[in-house]
Amino acid sequence: MNSAKKENYALPIAMMFALFFMIAFVTGLPSPMGVIVAKQFGASNFESQLGFFANFLAYAFMGLPAGLMLKRYGYKFTALSAVVVGFVGVGIQFLSGVAESFSIYLAGAFVSGFSMCMLNTVVNPMLNTLGGEGKKGNQLLQFGSSLNSVGATITPVLVGYLMGDIAGRTIEKANPALFIAMGIFALVFFVLLFVRIPEPHMVKETNVSKVKDKYSPLSFRHFILGAIAIFIYVGVEIGIPSTLNLFMTSPLDGIINGEQGAMGLGIDATIAGTVVGTYWFLMLIGRLLGGLLGAKYSSKAMLTFVSSLGIIFLLSAIFSSVTTVVDMPVFQSDLSFGLTEVPISVMYLVLCGFCTSIMWGGIFNLAVEGLGKYTTAASGIFMVMVCGGGIIPLLQGYVADISTYMTSYWVMMACMAYMLFYALIGSKNVNKNIPVAA
Question: How do residues 3-41 score in pLDDT, each as one tens digit?
């Protein structure tokens, strides 16, 4: 790939950066939207997490088909299809506000999930290819991942700011954020439509061997346990800040629609959005540090450290009194930093963002180590397991409904303990007798 061609790819590379941002932006919408539907539709904590469930359930259906689509039709077609589906999904969420329908909102979240799965399948290899692979491709992926974290940081801050006080929490208040998302999708679609994209990995021949391999990624114990770890990890990454948002914005007396619920903190939605945004900002910092330290420390050592630290933070949060407050630095709606007073338990939960930042990469590297020719198939299975981001928070929401918000974080504790187990014991490859050469 010569320098002239690289110059020609500057615009599609910029669009891939935009899609990295959009993946996090749209995936993060169910967190502040859950606060909105809890007020507008009288949803319980369990029901308010159904947006995440619908979004991530789509991965279970689309993970493998998205990979097949990429191989059969290539980057450009898959990316364009994903952008159209994303535009429609966000548009349906907008219509749910017009129709004042919780069911339509869930349908929009489900359709958006299809788009996010397709985009996740295409943007990483496509950006690597556009960069000419090697060090340049890796550098572009690191920039893309950083923009992904920026999108995750901005979403709760922006929607929290738009939400305002509790009396005005309706989906219409989030319309500007939805319009921004649809606008970016539209822009990316038309740019990609008129530019040439290299397609080095598109399968053009149908001459495939009929000899079936008796092994698969599922033949490796450490991969199976790693796939479970990915399922759990995505649930932890989403569940901690999402439930925290509900905890902060729910009424002090815990009364919702005349019924006793899990007692909240009664914090203004704008302030709560900045607190949750800080969780995602710490994930950005953690990813940058992980990139710097990745060449020095093994994935096992890094996953062991952050899992142990996460357990300490969660236990500290669970056993801390909500009457003990601290001034915590937060990422504010004007994109500056300031201090806001929150219970110390909230601060401990926000600090978990630093721990969850490098878990995906650590788990992925440990789970595919020694898989050889089975690595590609393993990646498709991982994409299916992302559905844990919808199921785990749903379980936590149910526990919050029948007990308290802080009690629900024992679900997160169990998940964090499993990831520590995987780092220390489960990640060992005990199936080295399986041939993995292509």
Answer: 434 446 777 788 778 888 888 878 777 767 777 777 777
The helix, strand and coil proportions of the chain, stated in percent and rounded to the nearest 5, come to 75, 5, 20
Could you please report the per-residue DSSP string of 1-56? --HHHHHHTHHHHHHHHHHHHHHHHHHHTHHHHHHHHHHHS---HHHHTHHHHHHH
CA distance 330 to 353: 13
Q: What is the pLDDT of residue 141?
A: 60
**Residue range 170-194, pLDDT digits in tens:** 677 777 878 888 888 898 888 888 8
Sign of CA dihedral 95, 120, 285, 313: positive
Domain boundaries, the chain: 1-195, 216-430
Closest CA to 227 of 431, 115, 376, 380: 380
Q: What angle do CA 20, 21, 23 make, to 5 degrees?
A: 65
Chain center to CA of 425: 26
3-state SS assignment for residue 326: strand
Q: What's residue 418's pLDDT?
A: 97
In the beta sheet, which residues pair with residue 343? 325
Contact indicator for 247, 208 with CB cutoff of 8 Å: no
- Strands, E, within 85-140: which ranges? none
pLDDT, tens digit, 9 for 90 and up, residues 88-136: 998 998 888 788 788 888 888 889 888 888 888 777 667 666 766 544 5
User: Which of helix, strand or coil describes residue 212?
Assistant: coil
Instruction: Give the β-pairing of 325-331 and 255-256.
Output: unpaired
User: Greater confidence, 218 or 29?
Assistant: 218
Q: Label residue 270 by pLDDT band (50, 70, 90).
A: confident
Q: How far is CA 269 from the centre of its chain?
A: 21
Determine the Cα–Cα distance for residues 273 and 281; give it in Å rounded to an integer: 12
- d(C-alpha 240, C-alpha 349), whole Å: 7
| Residue 319, CA distances (Å) to 13, 261, 349, 352 in order | 47, 20, 12, 15
Check if CATH label 3.30.70.560 holds for domain 216-430. no
Which CA distances in Å does 105 have to 40, 100, 205?
Answer: 12, 9, 42
Structure tokens, 430: 């005990």
Residues in the chain: 438
Q: Domain 1-195 belongs to what topology?
A: Growth Hormone; Chain: A; (1.20.1250)
By C-alpha distance, which of 146, 130, 148 is closest to 19? 148
